[in-house]
Design brief:
4 domains, Rossmann fold, Helicase, Ruva Protein, domain 3, 16 strands, alpha/beta
Length: 463
């Protein structure tokens, strides 16, 4: 059963019952109804709904509001009280002016009666319901004090289950996955859920150091071990004793370093650079790589014994392109995070077309790239309440310029303004009718023109 809360405001009692029965049969049980403007207003002020279906023209509108503007006024008051509530305006008296006003107030849709419940209404309700659940889940995850792995994809759920299973053990873990998939975040989550969570978590990227510097970072050095070593320095394996060390890009470690790491894993001991005293340590190792270490072993570039010890527990993080169904949830999670951090609490949602653009992208840098894209959008959104395609980076929204349409060029060659407007109107209506397979009702909804006027224009232009 779907727990989405829906209010239907419709003065036609038979239609009201049909809408409610239709939604109940589809699994939506939390459906309220109102048969006039005053009743709808009372319920809106007393409850928070996920979705409101409001007839544009209803009796008993709020004081001072014309009957024909009742739906728009309800929309305005709903958005003032509960910005996250999505509103669908349904009307038999639609005008272009009203459609633009509704969209300007962030109505989710403006539908003209008769509404096809299966083809028009249900896809909208299902999409909105899913988005509302994602927003609530993202908010819950963000407000949680623990590190969170965000996603409902089966592969990422397997990752979450694996983390729960291995977190409280002491065995080494190998995290594999492309750059930007969140390997560091998962290592931190394992630490947080482990028995070592009160001890140090230290991380180093093997690719960021020369072999000598990495040796010094991990194992420390004795005084006088090399020129400039004026004092003893303890390495991470001493500082993090009892805790966890995370080594990213383990595939970049030298053969000598691999040998030293294998000894620490197997015996829990090492010597500082320039020293001969064996030091004991109790450190759990988590390693990560984007490389195929099995192939590296075959090519002789990685130690087979070290790989065997690390690969005892291998957690693979899928790339974002293989879990695109998680993009909306991740986007809402990052929206919650960055609208707070960047002081943009006015932003409440993503506008039409944004998720389509995000889901079409190939995401070579995975979740890290999505995070940066959402942060940029939050910053560029300024005072707006909705993130739109224009707030995304240019490569997400700019398409190559098409060659000029010959029919458009013909119109531009017309010298008389009225004749040019008439020619454009005919071409515009023809294209929109073609897009909707000649369906006048759907065309009228798309272009914000009442279907009677579409019929009239169609006849006038002999389409």
């Amino acid at each position: 059963m779907d727990d989405t809360r829906i209010l239907i405001a419709e003065d036609d009692f038979d239609l009201l019952k049909r809408y409610k029965r239709f939604l109940n049969n589809k699994g939506f049980k939390a459906v309220d109804t109102a048969s006039d403007g005053e009743e709808a207003l009372r319920k809106i002020e007393a409850n928070i709904y996920d979705i409101v279906l409001a007839d544009q023209k209803m009796p008993n509108p709020p004081k001072g509001i014309p009957i024909e503007e009742c739906g728009i006024e309800l929309l305005r008051r709903i958005k003032n009280r509960s910005p996250d509530t999505e509103v669908i305006i349904i009307t038999a008296y639609g005008t272009t002016k009203m459609a633009f006003e509704a969209r300007g107030l962030y109505a989710r849709a403006y539908l003209t009666k008769p509404v096809d419940r299966e083809k028009q209404l249900m896809p909208l309700i299902m999409e909105i319901s899913q988005r509302q659940r994602e927003k609530r889940e993202a908010r819950r995850l963000y407000e949680s004090s623990e590190y969170q792995i965000v996603g409902e994809n089966r592969a990422i759920q397997n990752v979450i289950r694996d983390i729960e299973k291995v977190a409280k053990t002491n065995i080494p873990v190998l995290l594999t996955g492309e750059i930007g998939t969140g390997k560091t975040h998962i290592a931190e989550t394992i630490h947080l859920k482990s028995n070592r969570r009160t001890k140090k978590f230290a991380e180093r990227n093997c690719a960021a150091y020369t072999d000598e510097l990495l040796d010094n970072e991990l194992f420390g050095h004795e005084k006088g071990a090399f020129s400039g070593a004026t004092a003893l320095k303890k390495g991470l394996f001493e500082h993090a004793d009892g805790g966890i060390i995370f080594l990213d890009e383990i595939g970049e470690a030298s053969e000598r370093m691999q040998s030293k790491l294998l000894r620490v894993i197997e015996k829990g001991e090492f010597e500082r650079v320039g020293g001969n005293v064996t030091i004991k340590t109790d450190v759990r190792l988590i390693a990560a790589t984007y490389k195929d270490l099995q192939e590296e072993v075959k090519c002789g570039r990685f130690s087979e014994p070290l790989y065997s010890r690390l690969n005892a527990i291998n957690i693979h993080i899928p790339p974002l392109r293989e879990r695109k169904e998680d993009i909306p949830l991740l986007a809402y999670y990052f929206l919650e995070k960055y609208k707070k951090e960047e002081g943009r609490k006015n932003i409440r949602d993503f506008g039409p077309g944004v998720f389509e653009l995000l889901e079409q992208h190939k995401w070579p840098h995975n979740v890290r790239q999505l995070r940066d894209v959402i942060r940029r959008a939050v910053i560029f959104c300024d005072s707006a309440e909705i993130i739109l395609p224009m707030h995304l980076p240019p490569d997400f929204r700019v398409n190559p310029e098409p060659d000029p349409d010959p029919e458009i060029l013909d119109i531009l060659n017309i010298q008389n303004f009225k004749e040019a407007m008439k020619a454009f109107e005919k071409l515009f209506l023809y294209v929109k009718l073609q897009e909707n397979n000649g369906n006048v009702v759907r065309t009228s909804e798309d272009i914000g023109l009442h279907r009677s006027k579409v019929h009239k224009k169609k006849k006038e232009h002999q389409l």
